[in-house]
Amino acid sequence: MLQTILPFLYLLTASAQTLRLAGDSTMALGGGGSGTQGWGVELPQYLTIPVVNSAVAGTSARSFTNQGFFNTLIASVQAGDYVVIEFGHNDGSSGTAFDNGQEDAVGNGYNITQKTNGTQIVIHSFNFYVENAVNSIKAKGGIPIISSQTPDNIWTGTQIADGGRFVTYAQTVGTDTGITYIPHYNYTAQAYEALGMTTVDTFYPIDHLHTSVAGATVVAEAFVRGLLCSNSALKNFVNAAGKAVPNGCI
Ligand SMILES: *[C@@H]1O[C@H](CO)[C@@H](O)[C@H](O)[C@H]1NC(C)=O
Ligand SMILES: *[C@@H]1O[C@H](CO)[C@@H](O)[C@H](O)[C@H]1NC(C)=O
Ligand SMILES: *[C@@H]1O[C@H](CO)[C@@H](O)[C@H](O)[C@H]1NC(C)=O
């Protein structure tokens, strides 16, 4: 009796799982506006698990925390849900003595803090904000995944330019917290270099950051390739179209 019921229960449990996405405009519905699109919108076509895209344009790991978006997402996490966290584009230094509400403290230590605006504000590192979210997601029985930011459409010869420090920090989060790290930057760079600069230029109608629907599709496919090459059990939810995305493991 148990033998016939257990697989059925397993299916019920599995089908209740959800993938939740935390990120910025490069992932969000509507991208950066003007017809651009975030890759999180194109991801569901490659998966058999429902996707809730909670990305918010203009956010960094810090402001996604401070504006309450992580708390809202974490409150909705059910045991067994996956959460992909991907930030970096809005996390860089404001370049001035004044805090812009987005920038993180420089460095990848969990507890690094930095004061700006005189002595009024203490800001933490990228790793501090992300690792807090990772720990809260784990506490709810969720399965966090850290993904490095997408590249800009900036080339060095025939190659996408190297990623900045937030790519490295994302990898450090994976190591420090023992969760799956998806090198999304690298997998997207691989896809772009295979297509070539002329084609990739057509994916960027307004600037070098926000993608068209076609570009968002390539970026979503690059994530799926990175997922298939990872050790995350989320790859069990990749469908036939997902298994057929181009390129190989890095
Ligand atoms: C920091 O100070 C600048 C200049 O006064 C101000 O524009 C900015 O809003 C302040 N940032 C925060 C987060 O309070
Ligand atoms: C960060 O600081 C807290 C409080 O002092 C401490 O408990 C924790 O171990 C520190 N974490 C790391 C990774 O250094
Ligand atoms: C991924 O890209 C980053 C940034 O360009 C680079 O530092 C790193 O070595 C790359 N990793 C792999 C596995 O290619």
From TrEMBL:
Q: What is this protein called?
A: Rhamnogalacturonan acetylesterase
Instruction: Give any GO molecular function from the UniProt entry.
Output: hydrolase activity, acting on ester bonds
Q: Look up the signal peptide feature and give its range.
A: 1-16
Instruction: Report which superkingdom the organism of origin falls in.
Output: Eukaryota
The record's annotation in Gene3D superfamilies points to:
SGNH hydrolase
Family classification: Belongs to the 'GDSL' lipolytic enzyme family.
Sorted alphabetically, the keyword list is: Hydrolase, Signal
SUPFAM superfamilies noted in UniProt: SGNH hydrolase
One of its Pfam families is Lipase_GDSL
